[in-house]
Each structure stands twice: as structure tokens, then as C-alpha cells.
Design goal:
This protein is mainly α. It is 88% helix and 0% strand. The two termini are 31 Å apart. The mean pLDDT is 95.
Length: 156
Amino acid sequence: MSIYLLIKWLHILSATILFGTGIGIAFFKWITDRSGDVRAIRIVTERTVIADWIFTTPAVILQPVTGLILVYLAGFPLLSGWVLYSFLLYLFAGFCWLPVVALQIKMRDLARISDRNGTPLQAQYWRYARIWFWLGVPAFSALIAVYWLMISKPMM
């Protein structure tokens, strides 16, 4: 296998992990929040934080590294149309994701307190959950656009 194909395989694999775990984590966290079951919310939120660190974070790091290598190996100019837009959209998604990670940790801590005390989740938890959800919408939209750009490589 050539170095190009190996890097491309890693790039596609990390993109799949990034998108797949992201949408999976988001779905299970969102649907569990809707249940209102404090214990279930605590458990899923704890697992959400762990899954983001184990799966999403390495994929987030691997994506631009492999992308830059592929751009170099393929001979595309770094600041050309679709490459530049892909990186800008990826950065935008990242700027949405970083606060999401911080919010997940805060929600985990609030859910632990409520579960330990046998009390309903605080209003602050639900405020964080709304922000978390609405940061995810543009982040996922940006990643879908990046997928399209990577596959179609339009002339821009």
C-alpha cells in the first residue's frame, strides 16, 4: 500500500469516527435528556464525556493532520478553493465543538449532584443543554459541507 493510500485510509476512517461518534453521542444524549430521568441523564452524560475523549478527540486531531498530508501529496495548493473552504469549515466546526465539550463536563457535574441528592436537574443544566444542542447544529452542518467538498472537489 502506498503512503498516499494509507494516509487517505486514515483520513476517511477518522472522518467516519468523527462524524459517527459525534452524531451518535449527540442523539443518545439528547434523547436521554428528553426522558427527564436524572439517573439515566447522569449515566449518559458521563459516558458522553468519556466517548468524546476516547473517540472524538483523536479523530479531531487526525483529520487536519491527514488532510494536510493528502493535500501536499496530491499537489493541491493549500489555499485553493475547496481545500481552503474545507479547512475553514472544519475550524468553524471545531470552534463550536470546544464549548460543547466544556458544556458536557458542566452538565455531567450538575447531573451527578442531582442524582446524588435525589433532586431534579437545575435550570442551569437545561440552559447548558440548549446551548449544547444549538452549537451542534452548525457544527454538524459544517462537517457535512466538508464531506461534500472532499468528495466533489469543486473548482472554485
